[in-house]
Amino acid sequence: MYPWNMEQLAERIEACRKNSFRYLASRDITRFLLHAIDLTSLSGSDNTGSIARLCEHAREMVVPEKQCDGPAAVCVFPTFVKQAKQCLRNTAIRVASVAGAFPSGQSPIDIKVSEVRYAVQSGADEIDMVISRGKFLEGNYQEVFDEIAAIKNACGTALLKVILETGELKTPDLIYKASLLSMNAGADFIKTSTGKIEINATPEAFMVMLDAIVTHYKLTGKKIGIKPAGGIADTNTAILFLKILENVTGEEWLSNRLFRVGTTRLADKIFEEIMRE
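Now predict its structure.
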């Protein structure tokens, strides 16, 4: 069982909220957050025009004279990967793609793997997959492990983010167990949520996942990234996640190679704040 209860998690989160940043200067916080954002469009109405605008907007956020490096990546459906890759050529902005029966995970594994291969062959630098929560909640842990491992193999050199959908797992012990399982199966990142259900990223789930990452690092020496996503609607909430990250994992995770944040709705606000300085 997971060794901490919700009351203890709440106390730890409140302590993080009150702490000042140790490794980030005030001026650097917004720049770091923007450079950790995966600018995302995952709508049924997505089309070539809207994806072109998304990519152009990402390019506009790269402003060297303001020390603003723009977002880490754009995230799109597999059918738009090739277009996004072309639109973002000659930039450092990566192309991520959801794949593997996003957001439900309810497809046969061969179909999931085929979709991942399609996205990677189209040029995806990163794959965001979802675990089979139904199988996990039934206790079919080996099957979930094997699916992640198969998708990791299909990724080739592409980075794999594994979405736990913590709002459906609900309890800290299940979130912790799913985190460790995903990392052991090959995840490069673990991610809280799809943004498609009522309960998305919460500070409690994020802290539990970070505790799992620290445990995995102590056991293996491998650093795994983390991405809170979904429901992060204001800058103060994004900053709280960043404070929790700094307090639990320390300075080494303060890089978009190990931290991403799914808060597309805040990207413009953060960018405007940087431009006003």
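The longest strand covers residues 94-98.
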